[in-house]
Amino acid sequence: MWSWVLHRITGVAIFFFLLVHILDTALVRVSPEAYNAVIGTYQTPIMGLGEVALVGAIVFHAFNGLRIILIDFWSKGTKYQKVMFYVVIALWVITMLGFTPRHLINVFSH
Amino acid sequence: MSQTLDAPRTPVRPARKKGVNWEKWGWIYMRVSGVVLVVLIFGHLFMNLMVGDGVSAIDFAFVGGKWASPFWQWWDVAMLWLALIHGGNGMRTLVNDYARGPKLRAAFKVAILASVAILILLGTLVVFTFDPCPVGQPADLLPSFCAA
Ligand code: HEM
């Protein structure tokens, strides 16, 4: 149940970010100054923390999405769905431990 | 006045018996695109946030350097199409689950379809018509290869 709730919420959140992200990237077609001004806001401490949340949402949605696919197509998928949920959580923690320190150093040391 | 409730899982309209089963292909699309998107998105996040100085290194010159290569152009365009259609179809599922009333549902779906179509068009045009060395722009904002 919670895996489903989280999958929905992260899916919607990523979708809305994607809409904004395509628009900000499209500014490369306007001028270097316009793009640099907007991307500069992505490099502030507050946005840096937001990016950790965003990456966390994407990584959860990705790993849990693969879990959904295994439940659907792997003959033992339903039997191991709970185990696989804990695997998703474990992989999420490992990925975020690799990402978060490096990203925060990049954000706060510039 | 007695109120009646539909039996659980009563479909809004009955499944069609002949022709293309779009709902099934949508279901398959969510899974196929999901697998491909894991590779595309993890690669995107790794290249842009983990390598070098990560997010602090991103500027016009960084994007110009990446899109100088057809490899990253096609990577990003594939990600654009797959993610927008996957996300748009996922949002359609949410509208089907939560929005009440035929008019509201139709309005939401038109809005989703329009956003997805416009952004796919915009994003594809940007990637393929992008000029990394626009004339008359300060050289320090451009990729280093523009000087050559
Ligand atoms: C990283 C790779 C991804 C994987 C493996 C993945 C996988 C999945 C799967 C398997 C579903 C379930 C579909 C169903 O039940 O029929 C789903 C739903 C969804 N996905 Fe993704 N997805 C990924 C990326 C994305 C992205 C980038 C977005 C946003 C643009 C997104 C937005 C959604 C939404 C809104 C739903 C609907 C949620 C629901 O029905 O509860 N996903 N995803």
Level-1 CATH class name of chain B: Mainly Alpha
Number of helices of chain B: 4
Beta-strand fraction estimate of chain B: under 5%
Profile the largest sheet of chain A: none
Annotation, overall tally of beta strands of chain B: 0
Counting helices, strands and paired strands, the structural category of chain B is mainly alpha
Q: Which CATH architecture of chain A would you pick?
A: Up-down Bundle
Radius of gyration of chain B: 22 Å
Distance between the termini of chain B: 82 Å
CATH topology of chain A: 3 helical TM bundles of succinate and fumarate reductases
Question: What kind of assembly state do the chains in view correspond to?
Answer: heterodimer
The CATH topology of chain B, please? 3 helical TM bundles of succinate and fumarate reductases
Helix content of chain A: over 70%
CATH homologous superfamily assignment of chain B: Fumarate reductase/succinate dehydrogenase, transmembrane subunit
Unreliable parts of chain B = none
- Integer tally of domains of chain A: 1
CATH top level of chain A?
Mainly Alpha
Integer count of domains of chain B: 1
